[in-house]
Design goal:
homodimer; 307 residues; Alpha-Beta Plaits; 7-stranded antiparallel β-sheet; 3-stranded antiparallel β-sheet; 10 helices
């Protein structure tokens, strides 16, 4: 989380005051932690002009394992044992539903196909550190345990930086996949959900989309490790239909107790849906804070909510 | 940091509103992150009634290494290589200045003495995980590297849970040490500083204390890994003297750009010193937030600042 890496910030407030908070140590429990108010609030309370970040040396070695699994319950169990085996070495755990993996390796130019396309779920897992042999040994041990417990159906390990990069390209080619469908429009969603509801959520979204338009479909992938799911609805474009799909997915997300924006914020486009992820009391408090810190509504007006 | 482990909270505000924010996922970028305002603000903005925490399985194995070093610069270099070698396994890096280690092992009942008492600095380092052999091998490798580069002068590794606990007792016996000085009063401080200023800071505090009272002394130890230093001034007690030492240490902390409370908050006792770690503009903004969320000043009034 970016928030956890921010040691201090300098902020200019609505009345021109410069808040000098560019401190460079981690622990500072002296009154209200003001920087927390500005981080992630899209500039509506102040303008961040400088920031001090906590940084770490980049790991020299990254290795990747792609696995196939037969159910989302297994994806979830596999995440648990991957955490146990790899601990701090685990740097990515990306779940892909069948449609996403299959369509990407079949349709996007230049994709490798490290595993067959008929498995229900795929996980791309990355382990990082400074000791290549150890990471490799740890991944092999994890693989052995997971195969031994019938948790995964099939798997392949990267053998070089190039093969690791080729596997990552499968996960990173959502835009390219979208372009392979002529006359089809793509709506991207970025939601958070408790991991134990992801499977049911994906099924509910898929069914309700088909009920509106039998040719539309959703592809789903995400950083299952932190509860963040990306979902893309592909459909034949009319603006009205687009709005209908947006409303549908956001309301299902609300029904599942999820967040309508895990990473990207509210901005203007998602403003009508803020009330799905925040209660009326929470939104009232946000407005009260905005009025206190920016009474003339001059800072990024109209973002997140209208005053 | 406790803040980073909090997924969601339920808060009762001054007007009796219950803010339902007990969400259980990590990423939620939908408007101002209100929970951040309540965490660590000592109840002056609302009463936290429930919290959802992120938890991790406890490691099954903890091993400890006690090292002696000849300068604070070496403590800092040793921290860097310990991070490189141990990465996620490094769970404590506690620096002790000579006075602290020497007085504790000499005066407190039941202490072991794993290393001689004449070294300028000591570090108690802990590595944790689930694989005892690996942790031991990693600590030995770190030890070899550090000795090879003349970074440490002497070291000893725990050989059992009991010996690890005995080493931790040296670090954890500050209260017991205080009680070995009859008629001496102890003032505890909890400050944050950039690590590259800690050595100079300790020297400045020591000199200025002696200038007030030649029999007073400071013992210093801390979680150097996160910039947090604990400092205790021992002196013969009169209330006036106590206040003089408090003012002295807090003002030196301010001169070094540090925080006067890394972990423990402001409360009432440190209220006069808040302005050392926060600018007048920051304190004004805290007051404005307090007035907005608690206009009648009924929530923990008088904590952090007077309205």
């Amino acid at each position: 989380m970016a928030r956890d890496l921010i040691l201090g910030i300098e902020v200019v407030t609505a009345d021109g005051t410069v808040l000098h908070g560019l401190r460079k140590y981690l622990k500072n429990n002296t009154g209200i932690d003001l920087k927390q108010l500005f981080i992630g609030s899209e500039g509506i309370l102040g303008v961040i002009t400088r920031a001090a970040l906590r940084i770490f040396p980049a790991p020299t070695e990254r290795q990747v394992m792609l696995c196939a699994l037969h159910s989302f319950a297994q994806v979830s169990s596999f995440l648990d044992i991957a955490r146990q085996h790899l601990d701090g070495e685990l740097t990515a755990f990306e779940a892909m539903w069948n449609d996403y993996y299959r369509l990407t390796v079949e349709r996007v130019n230049g994709m490798i196909r490290p595993l067959p396309t008929h498995y229900p779920f795929y996980v791309l897992l990355e382990a990082s550190g400074n000791d290549a042999e150890r990471i490799h040994a740890d991944l092999e041990e994890l693989l052995e345990t997971a195969l031994g417990e019938d948790m995964i159906l099939d798997a392949t390990l990267s053998t070089s930086k190039a093969s690791a990069a080729a596997m990552w390209r499968i996960r990173d080619s959502t835009l390219e996949l979208g372009r392979t469908f002529p006359y089809v429009s793509r709506i991207g969603f970025d939601v958070s959900l408790p991991i134990d509801r992801m499977d049911e959520y994906e099924k509910a979204v898929g069914l309700r989309i088909k009920a509106i338009d039998s040719r539309a479909f959703a592809i789903v992938f995400g950083h299952a490790g932190d509860g963040n799911l990306h979902l893309e609805v592909h459909h034949e474009h009319t603006p009205e239909r687009r709005e209908e799909f947006e409303k549908l997915v956001y309301h299902i997300t609300g029904d599942f107790g999820g967040s309508i924006s895990a990473e990207h914020g509210i901005g203007i486009l998602k403003r009508p849906y803020l009330k799905i992820s925040r209660t009326p009391d929470e939104i009232d408090m946000m407005r009260a804070l905005k009025r206190t810190l920016d009474p003339k509504n001059i800072l990024n007006p109209g973002r997140i909510f209208k005053l």
